[in-house]
Design brief:
Alpha-Beta Plaits; two-stranded antiparallel sheet; 4 helices
Length: 105
């Protein structure tokens, strides 16, 4: 087995960070990004478990997708689909499909 050994002098390796100008973000954009991040982080604290004996992952995915589509709240504001979801309607949909619904703490 042949092994190649590469030895480079630090002076030969280009410094890419020195060639790149620093990124500047406008204060308004930084504040908007922080607000979006906080809104998303705070709104995703609830977790739910949906159990059904003998369900395949593909079937669970289809049922979750169908119930998400059925229980969208067009009047709700949210950055993600989960934030615009009518959770009670979604849970009722999953129960109709035979799942036991429980909140995970």
């Amino acid at each position: 087995m042949l092994r190649a050994r590469v030895v480079a002098d630090a002076r030969e390796i280009p410094d890419f960070d020195a060639a790149r100008p620093p990124v500047r973000v406008a204060p308004g954009v930084a504040v908007a990004l922080a607000v979006c991040w906080l809104a998303t982080a705070c709104a995703t604290g609830e977790q739910w478990a949906y159990d059904k004996k003998g369900v395949t992952p593909a079937r669970l995915d289809r049922d979750l997708t169908a119930c998400r589509q059925e229980s969208q709240d067009p009047g709700a504001f949210g950055l993600t689909i989960e934030q615009r979801l009518d959770r009670e309607g979604f849970n009722r949909c999953m129960e109709r499909k035979g799942y036991s619904v429980r909140r995970v703490e």
